[in-house]
Amino acid sequence: MPVLDHFHAPLSEERHWEGFHSKWANVLVDELNQTLLPKGYFAEPHIHMGPRVEIDTFEVQIISTEAGPSLVAAIELISPANKDRAEHRRAFAVKCASYLNQGISLILVDIVTSRHGNLHDEVVRLLPNGDPYLFPANPLLYAAAYRPIRRNETEQIDTWLVPLAVGGPLPVLPLALTSELILSIDLETTYVDACRKLRIV
Predict the structure, then answer these.
(1) Dist CA 148 CA 161 (whole Å)
(2) 116 inside domain
(3) Is residue 4, in this structure, part of any structural domain at all?
(4) Environment class of 135 (CB within 10 Å of its CB; exposed 0-12, middle 13-18, buried 19+)
(5) Is 5 within the bounds of a domain?
(6) Taking each helix axis from N to C terminus, what angle separates 187-197 and 17-31, rounded to the nearest 10 degrees?
(7) What percent of the chain has pLDDT over 90?
(8) What is the mean pLDDT of the chain?
(9) pLDDT reading at 51 higher than 70
């Protein structure tokens, strides 16, 4: 099914986007724990909103238990508050850049149509030599995957950038847990499942 506009009428008058983001995060967690993750890993949702937290978070965390619980990858579902003002965009970008600098793989998904601001570009501008990773265009909606990796004694970040559009499909993106273990995250299938479970379709 195509990506819907959860932030404008008529859908925004019938459903709360916060409920959808929460459900999508939980569907991703279920898919990871029930199907994709091998022994020694688990996924859990981290959802925080409101004035008492620095930034809104609709996040799926993948934890490795082999060397004590440690975060190895994350999926971020961007919210309107992440994009609505410069300090919020900066805080979100700093968090994501910190993950990448720690070697934590990352997927960003932005289907927010009610705010402008490309957080991918804000993230890579915080990285050393990040300019080559900027989006060639400046899409309102997009999905992006990042894999920190060391090659020839040099720290690098592989990136996959996919512009999105209301009415268009969602991609399958890679999420690396180690240099050898890379999962395929089917954003389309999990999106459709979340919509169905909330009776949006």
Answers:
(1) 15
(2) yes
(3) no
(4) middle
(5) no
(6) 120
(7) 80
(8) 93
(9) no
